Amino acid sequence: MNKTVKKLLYVISGIAVLFIAILLFHIITAKPAVYDSPNLQVSRIDFKANIDSVQAKQICADLRTIKGLTSDSIIVKKNVVVYFHNNKITNSEKVYNELMTKRPYEAKRFLLPANMENKEVCPVDQNSFAYKASKTINQFFN
Q1: What is the pLDDT of residues 72-82, one digit of tens each?
Q2: Strand partners of residue 45
Q3: Cα 48 to Cα 19, 76, 81, 83, 101, distances in angstroms
Q4: Residue 134, Cα to own-chain centre: how many angstroms?
């Protein structure tokens, strides 16, 4: 009975050492993730009339031809079009002007009120312990 327990402990400790070695190898050789999200911006265009499904497809097709837009992130609701763009490549004014040259749309570019332009929108307190701890853990594994 003693020999069986010893063999079982050797097997379990061998598996544990192997698991830890694989985990350490992965942590050491894994490359950190690179996020391009700081360059992603959301913008909006307000249309004067409600947009039907045919017009929505036409607007989406026109927007997808504009350089700098993420083609899978165009949202059309009633009389509003929301889209995401890379602000290193283009800005909302350029997108609006280029869209207006494609067809005679009756629309205007949405601009934030002056009192909201400099407000932070991140709901996370970046000075909190939870934020700093999660950032450290994330950096460790990435």
Answers
A1: 778 888 899 99
A2: 81, 109
A3: 62, 14, 12, 18, 17
A4: 18
